[in-house]
Amino acid sequence: MATTSDLRKGMLIRYNGAIHRVVEYQHIAPGNWRAMVRMKLKNFENGKIIEDRVRAGDEIDVVQTETRTATYLYNDGASA
C-alpha cells in the first residue's frame, strides 16, 4: 500500500474495485481545512474518466505492472 503522496501521472491504481490510470492529480491545502488530493482517473477497462477527491495521506492500492517487448507470430495462410 502507498499513500497519496506517492501518486504519479500514468501510474495504475485500484480505486473503488476497478483499475484506473492516473491522468492528473493535484494536492490542495485550502486555508483552515484539511488538505486533500484531487485526482482525475481513467478506467483501464472502459476508458471512462472520473474525478474524485481524497484526503491527503490516505492509502491507495498501487497496481504493479511489467512491460515486455513481444513479437506477434501468426500463420497468414499464404505460406506453407
Summarize, please.
The protein is an all-beta fold. It has no helices and 6 strands.
Keywords:
80 residues, mainly beta, 6-stranded antiparallel beta sheet, 0% helix, elongated
Question: Can you offer a commentary on this structure?
Answer:
- With 80 residues, the protein is mainly beta.
- It is built from no helices and 6 strands.
- It has strands at residues 2-3, 12-15, 18-28, 36-43, 49-55, 59-62.
- Strands 1-6-2-3-4-5 form a 6-stranded antiparallel β-sheet, with no helix packed on it.
- A hairpin with a 7-residue loop joins strand 3 and strand 4.
- The model has no long low-confidence stretch (mean pLDDT 91).
- Poorly predicted runs: none
Widest sheet, order of strands? 1-6-2-3-4-5
What's the β-strand tally?
A: 6
Oligomer: single chain
Structural class from helices and strands? mainly beta
Number of continuous helical runs = 0
